[in-house]
Structures are given as structure tokens and as C-alpha cells.
Amino acid sequence: MAQITLKNLAHSYLAAPTGDDDYALKELNHVWKDGEAYALLGPSGCGKSTLLNIISGLLVPSQGRILFGDDDVTEKSTADRNIAQVFQFPVVYDTMTVRDNLAFPLRNRGADADYVTRRVEEIAHMIDMEAELDRKARGLTADAKQKISLGRGMVREDVNAILFDEPLTVIDPHMKWELRTQLKELHNRFGHTMIYVTHDQTEALTFADKVVVMYDGRVVQMGTPEELFETPAHTFVGYFIGSPGMNLLDAKIDGATAYVDGTEIPLGASYGQPQGRVQIGIRPEFVTLSADEGVPVKVRRIEDVGRHRIIRADFFGTQINIIAHEGVSVSPEMTRVVFEPSKVNVYADDWRVEPAALGRAA
Ligand code: ADP
Ligand code: MG
């Protein structure tokens, strides 16, 4: 196993790229620590598969280096990198039995027959296919085949990393949850470095210790689920993570006060006078409706979504969302909102501004 370092990496599918827009992957530097479970999260087309395929060696980057530990593997083949990869759609040998499919990566590396038998049984148990071991893969359903692909990805214990590219897309919802739990357990037991690509925030947040968020060919933030929730580094992270996402309001900032349409909103820290397009961001969880405190708001609609209610309101011409937790009453005389000052983030040109000092002294 090894730490994976990406140095000044960038990739364009064009032969002669000119500007930033020609790059599927903009220049990035990134370290994947040995033994961690990462989710690589972002919308379709943002460059997740491109990045994964560069790490596995399926794709040679137009620029930059890839290191496994101290070893430069940029020019090395996938086989030489000793990596397992599981794709979105099943890759199985139809004419082989399930057992032979699972054993293939081990036999291919000359593993001992007893070990192969034992290991295949273990993996079959994990993917719940012990009963089908001696059936041919042909004729199995798409999700059974995908489970075989997952099993093949996990069967070798000596790989440097296991890469998963949206592997549960074709799996039914219940099995999805089960397999994700299994993958996590496998990670806890064997400690492989894992990178799990998904566009689904729930999948990312439940699988990984660290989530790497990509947007438009860039890594915009790496953090724990809590960090992504509390302090999104980019407005995209605020919007993409959470349900509904973070409220963003154009504002002017002077020290520890934000002005939205001239109305004062206290901040939990001092931010100086950031320039560019300045916005404040606050999650719906940290906005509360009030009858007597805060800033005026027009409630448009209240949606009961089970565990809590989502209130859609008009705040100086911008729609904001407020979450009212169970047991919190909402009444028509509540025509004001309070933003919890310590939970307000400040953004300049979409990037989070670090507070200069704690407390309200500017
Ligand atoms: P994701 O996996 O996040 O959906 P991809 O890495 O597949 O994103 O794609 C990133 C960008 O690169 C997209 O704009 C996509 O259209 C483009 N792209 C992906 N593969 C190729 C390819 N083989 N040739 C040309 N462009 C590609
Ligand atoms: Mg993809």
C-alpha cells in the first residue's frame, strides 16, 4: 500500500489545448494518504473519472506526475501500479463461473490454490453470492454481475489502492446500502487506500472519512463531512452538500457586520472588507424564524418533509430556505429571521474568506 501524490497534474482530451476551458482537469496538487477511505464527489462531467483513470494508469495525463510513495509511476501501466478498479458497469467473463471470475485476479498473480479457494469463499460471502459460485456468469442479472465486479475488485489483499467509479449505479437500493456497509467494513479490516467516486452526497458522506469535492475540473475542497457542512470552502460545496443547500445572499461586509440590502446582519467574526462578488452563506439549519427578533422575511410556503419542515421564504428578493426542527412551532406572526452569527460564512468570488479575528471587534 502507498500514499498517492499528484503533482501539478492536469489533463486535456484535446491535442492542443489553449485555455482553462480546454482542460477536463485543471492543474491540481493532491495527496491521498495511505490507508484512508476517500469519496470523490461531484456532478456529472466535473472530471471524476478522468482523475480516477489517471491514478489507475488507464489515462496518461497531459501534464504532471503521479507518485506511489516515492516511486514515480506516471509512465507505468495499470498492472505495474498494482491497483484494483471497479467500474460503473459490470466487467465479467460470461463463460466463466462466478468462482472463476472471482479467482481470476488471484490466479493471474500466481496465488496458491488453497489460498484462492479460501479467499474466494470469503469474498462470495461478502457479496452474498455463495449459492451461485458454480453458475456461469452468463444469464445472471446486471446487479449480480456488478456484485461479481465488486468482488473481483476486493479479492486481492496486496493492492496499493482500490478505486471505485460509481460502482453501485446498477444495484438495487437495498443492496446498495448493504454493499456500501460491506465496503466500509472491508476498509476497516484491511486498511486499503480506497477512492470511491460518486455524484451522490449521501453515498459519499456515509462511505468516507474524507470527502474530496470536485467542480468543473477542480478539487474545490477536501474535508470531513462535518467540515463540508460547517465551512464549505466554495459556494458550490455549500450548494451541493445539504438538503436543501446553503443559502447565499449578496452582501457588503465591514468587519464583523454584513449588509444585505442595507440591513445589518451580525457575523461571528471579523472579515475586514473583502472585495469582488461578496456573499454570505448560511445553512437552512442555522436560520430561525422569530416573532420579535432579527430581520424581516416573507414566508411563502411550508413543506413538511417528515423529520422536519422546510420553510421557503423571500428575503429582500432572494429565496431562502429555513429548516424548522421537530417540536419547533411556526406561526403566522413569525415574520422575522435570525441567522446564527457563528454559522455565517463569507465568500468573495465564490471562495470562502477566512475570518481575520474572532469576536465582534473589527
Ligand atoms: P465525471 O466522471 O465527473 O462525470 P469525466 O471525467 O467523465 O467526468 O469527464 C470530464 C470532462 O471530460 C467532460 O466534459 C467530458 O465530456 C470530457 N471527457 C471525458 N472523457 C472524454 C474522452 N474520452 N474524450 C473527450 N472528452 C472526454
Ligand atoms: Mg464518471
Task: Itemize the secondary structure elements and their pairings.
Blueprint lengths: L3 E8 L13 E8 L4 E5 L6 H9 L6 E6 L2 E2 L5 H4 L1 E4 L11 H11 L4 H14 L15 H13 L6 E5 L7 H18 L2 E6 L2 H7 L2 E6 L2 E6 L1 H6 L4 H6 L6 E4 L1 E3 L2 E4 L2 E4 L2 E2 L7 E5 L4 E4 L4 E2 L1 E7 L3 E8 L2 E8 L10 E4 L5 E4 L2 E2 L4 E2 L4
Parallel strand pairs: 3-8, 3-9, 6-7, 7-8
Antiparallel strand pairs: 1-2, 1-4, 4-5, 9-10, 11-16, 12-13, 13-14, 15-25, 16-23, 17-22, 18-22, 19-20, 20-21, 23-24
Helix pairs in contact: 3-4, 3-5
The protein binds adenosine-5'-diphosphate (ADP) and magnesium ion.
The site of magnesium ion (MG) has 3 residues, from helix 1.
State the gist of this model:
This is ATP-binding cassette domain-containing protein. By secondary structure, the protein is of the alpha+beta class.
Structure description:
With 362 residues, the protein is an alpha+beta fold. It folds into two domains: 4-230, Rossmann fold (3-Layer(aba) Sandwich); 244-358, no CATH class. Helices cover 24% and strands 33% of the residues. It is built from nine helices and 25 strands. The strands form seven sheets. It has a six-stranded mixed beta sheet, sandwiched between helices. It has a four-stranded antiparallel beta sheet with strand order 2-1-4-5, with helices on one face. A four-stranded antiparallel beta sheet has the order 11-16-23-24. Helix 3 packs across helix 4 (113-126) and helix 3 (98-108) runs parallel beside helix 5 (142-154). The longest helix is centred in the middle third of the chain and has 18 residues, at 173-190. The two termini are 49 Å apart. The mean pLDDT is 94. Adenosine-5'-diphosphate (ADP) binds at residues 13, 24, 42, 44-50. Adenosine-5'-diphosphate (ADP) is lined by residues 13, 24, 42, 44-50. One of its GO terms (molecular function) is ABC-type ferric iron transporter activity. Residues 4-241 form the ABC transporter domain. InterPro entries: AAA+_ATPase, ABC_transporter-like_ATP-bd, ABC_transpr_FbpC, ABC_transpr_MalK/UgpC-like, Mo/tungstate-bd_C_term_dom, NA-bd_OB-fold, OB_MalK-like, P-loop_NTPase.
